[in-house]
Input
Amino acid sequence: MKKSTYSRRKFLGISAAAAGASLAPKSILLTPEPLLASARPAPASDRLRFGMIGIGMQGSGLLTESITLPGVECAAACDLYDGRHTLAKEIVRPDLPVTRRYQELLADKNIDCIVAAVPDHWHKQVVVDAVSAGKDIYCEKPMSHSAADGVAMVEAAKRTGRIVQIGSQRVSSLVCKKAKEMVAQGMLGDLMMVEGWLGRNDPTGAWEYPPPTDLSPQTLDWDTWQGNVAKRPFDPYIFARWRCWKEYGTGVAGDLLVHLVSGMMFILNMNDAPQQAMSLGGILRFKDGRNMPDVHATLFKYGEIPVYMRLNLGTDMPETYRFQGSKGILEVTEFGLSYTPQTGKDSGPSYYDSGFPHEMRAAYEKKWHEENDPKLGQEPMLEAMTFHGPDFDDMKPHLWNFFEAVRSRKPVVEDAVFGHHAALACHMANESYFRKTAVSWDQASKSIKS
Output
């Protein structure tokens, strides 16, 4: 018998090729559900009237989408920058009431609910004030600016019984819904690990936004905008690029990681904070005075499962999840998902037999084939599947879920507890980065511990 020259690497390569040849790919188009098909024009007496707080980059998009939904209208808008009063009127109608004081919207009995898109350091105050005033609220992600803020927001939502929807739209995505169904059906088997990544490679993606050209202490209430943060002189770049500073924002963790975490939580049907987090990163490219990292990698522990999330503002990488299971791999991207099954079994005799004497190896391999080779015509055909769907950043269905919940009083898809748990992952990632050590969530004290 000719001596075998198979190495472990060659064996694995041949096995992988054989497995790939047995996969029958199937591509399926995900058709969006007729979200608004049953919705009819509502009489004026039944229309929902919302107040819009914050009409910047994200807020203007939320406002534009909201007023296209049947039975929904904007009653008034608020922003501390006067130029966005003009923008709100351009989006809605020329006679739209506008103000710098959001408290006026909360006091207006004709306003049923609030949609808010303000800097992170204002989230807690706006949400707590809104629910305390009897208003339901849709608040942009991340839910909170700190773990303590999140705890206070959850308590306020429970105390008042008002509806709080957090704006991580992955939980309303058709792509993520299909992934969730596949996981629930057991297609992954035992979950081994989760990976996620997202990267950008341009100044705009790194929040180096151009400030409005007419921005000044006359057109912007700078002192109020700063909130409870230590006051500093007027700076139009901080106003436009607040995500770069921990005093106002939560960095790539709150801006990008929260998408990955909320989508993962939804797909895996979990609603918990991570037990532990360990981060590495730094300001490697955008050395523009920011104090939040532009590269941030975090290893989390959820139960027994390691979750590895990577954010990068110096290399473009499409947002991707990879769920690794004993029965296969599920990869979820912006416009679809693919599932590649694995048997978890040997596809041939063990390469360890290269250490057997020749006669023993021959007997072992003969016996293995007799016991494991399929009969002719009964070879298993593993089926890989690919699904294509709409962009999973589904703002309109997410908003519609909120407005329908305001009408029906049914639960939303991303309430304050879910939003708090997703935001805690971001806060733990940031705390680990700044403390330069692993951190854990202590449920008893409701705080992040080193």
